Amino acid sequence: MAYLTLQGINKIYPNGFHAVHDFNLEIEQGEFIIFVGPSGCGKSTTLRMIAGLENISKGEFYIDGVRANEKGPREREVAMVFQSYALYPHMSVYDNMAFGLTLQGVDDDIIEQRVMDTARILGLTDYLDRKPRALSGGQRQRVAVGRAIIRKVGIFLMDEPLSNLDAKQRVTMRSEITDIHRKVGATTIYVTHDQTEAMTMADRIVVMKDGYIQQVGTPYELYFKPVNMFVAGFIGEPPMNFITADVQNGAIKVGSTTLALSNVLAADKLATYEGKKIIFGFRPEVIELGAKADSYVLKADVELTELLGDNTNVYVDIEGVKSILKVDPHDTPEMDTNIEFSIPYKSVYLFDGDTEMVIDTNK
């Protein structure tokens, strides 16, 4: 296991493109950290700088307290799992997993023991004599993971390792990678654009946008305590709903409905936002159909419903604002009807209309 320190890390390419800005992060020994964000946000570039595959333009990178900016990938003792698996097609599963140890000059008997132990962990014992083309996508991914963990290094780096798998395989591999991490205990940094992977696997998540860190926190913190609209909208499925409105006389109007902000916002903050724009946010799953106590009650036109088994997504129009509600499948409203629903005061998020930063609603 290793602990990592990234201080003011920047990546600027020769053409002037600034891919990563002032990236600061402390990663503890044995942590499972996930970088998440949309395509082009800088997460893979940051991972490659940690691996030594990209030069750091500015900033300091430390492994176990030792500066590692100029160290090559081998000196950093990292193992990387790529999106493409990167297996040798002419080699068996056994030889693919053993290849790195063979290059290091490890004795054959030790290699055999490590391959067998790793194959047992990954459920690959029966496939050791097969070539990659004879394996499923999930099995190939397990071989790629096995080739990494067999080296027994302190840092594992994974770049979108599940993106080539189908939905069922991704669910299985998520749990398998998490279980492997618990057994091996290496510090792991994992890159994905899939917030579900991030929420279900990570100890902490780093949310990135346009090369900047937006928020670092546990899955619970990112879901329940987002710092801005981007994090609030990126984490959660379906995403958070947002309604933009002006604050007038301590309230916002959504069509003909007046929402008194004094129910969720302290008086001093309420006065600060008088006459300004504010964004009203709520998650699809917090609503209840009908009028409830201690809640904002809104009306909406039902445009579409999606039965997903354990719940139904209801696509609605709230005075011209498109939103999604998540309801019990046994209580699904009919399409082309008007419904009333409630949002508990405690489940409301407010964001500054100019900065898009969250407004503290603790009263």
Descriptive notes:
It is a single chain. The chain is α+β, with helices and mostly antiparallel strands and 363 residues long. Helices cover 26% and strands 34% of the residues. It is built from 10 helices and 21 strands. The chain has helices spanning 43-51, 73-76, 93-103, 108-122, 137-149, 167-184, 195-201, 219-224, 229-234, 267-272, and strands spanning 4-12, 18-27, 32-36, 58-63, 66-67, 78-81, 155-159, 187-192, 204-209, 212-217, 241-248, 251-254, 257-260, 277-282, 288-289, 295-307, 312-318, 321-327, 338-344, 349-352, 358-359. The strands form 4 sheets. Strands 6-7-8-3-9-10 form a 6-stranded mixed beta sheet, with helices on both faces. Strands 13-12-11-14-20-21 form a 6-stranded antiparallel beta sheet, with no helix packed on it. A 5-stranded antiparallel beta sheet has the order 15-19-16-17-18, with no helix packed on it.
Provide the fold topology.
Layout: E1 4-12, E2 18-27, E3 32-36, H1 43-51, E4 58-63, E5 66-67, H2 73-76, E6 78-81, H3 93-103, H4 108-122, H5 137-149, E7 155-159, H6 167-184, E8 187-192, H7 195-201, E9 204-209, E10 212-217, H8 219-224, H9 229-234, E11 241-248, E12 251-254, E13 257-260, H10 267-272, E14 277-282, E15 288-289, E16 295-307, E17 312-318, E18 321-327, E19 338-344, E20 349-352, E21 358-359
Parallel strand pairs: 3-8, 3-9, 6-7, 7-8
Antiparallel strand pairs: 1-2, 1-4, 4-5, 9-10, 11-12, 11-14, 12-13, 14-20, 15-19, 16-17, 16-19, 17-18, 20-21
